[in-house]
Give the backbone structure.
Amino acid sequence: MAASFRISIRNLALSRPSEIPQTKAADDESLPNSLRTPTKALALREKKVEHSRSSNDLRQSPNNRKVPDVEKQGSNTGKGLNLDQPRRNKLRRRSTLNWTNATPQSRQQKLEDVAGSKLADTWFSLHCEGVTEPVYVSEVVEKAMNPNFRSFDLTTYGPWITRKDRLTIKVWARTESSQQYVIVLELQVHLRSLQFIGKSLESFRHPLPPNCVLLYLADGIYTSFTDLPLDEPVLAIPTPTKNAHGTQSTSTFDELMRLSNLDDCIQDALVTRQKLTSQISSLIERQKEDRQVVQSAAQAQDSLSSTNRAVSAMQKQIKTAQARRFELQTSLRARRDA
């Protein structure tokens, strides 16, 4: 099981499809009394395809139509319809434009009711075998037919959960008319039998079935069109054989020699590592004096530079004092002369 992934649902259907298999298409032929109606019997006898009638033709009286020749022939032979009996009027076709005179408010309300019947508040829970409580419970996505849930991480549960290849996804939903959540889908997912759709849904051109669960993994989108696992080959585990004396074979001579050679190589590697460690330590000790000389030279250079800076500063002060003394002497001589 992936540590982190995301789940979404497409074509949410609140009503489960009928479990009764249909062997043929559901049409008028499947009705028990469809072949016994007078209207259909008359149409079969006429053997004539009529065009669809307009609204004006439907309002006309059916008594004005012409009696087919088939009926006349049937009356002469005694096997057709009896003309003395009153004819059955054809039923008027029901008008399908029941929204013609409807107001825009009623149309909008009707559309909102139809759309609201397909929208539901949805959330899912994730279950694993051997765990009584749900491993993860998602947030509630309100009023959506294709809910998209947030991604989640299962690394906190440890490898005992993340390494499982089977999980159970229970989808819960409720509509505006209902107050309680009901289980819409309970899917047993086998991660080894998932089908790859693509990097995105735009590249997948086939229609998705109702209540299709999509798993967004790191490499793309996967789904499970069937919960049947793939046929996995059963690995034959060799059983140890016992001889007549009761001894049991463990390893061959070649395998023991390989283990001995491996042990020798490991011991040689340990000895080599110890030698390298000792050589590096000796080199560090030898270069310790050289490092001390370099450090002392650097310290002497620093002290020399600081001394030179102090000497230059004192020379500047001396020059300043000499200039000041010369000025004072000059001023005193000028006063004496005056």
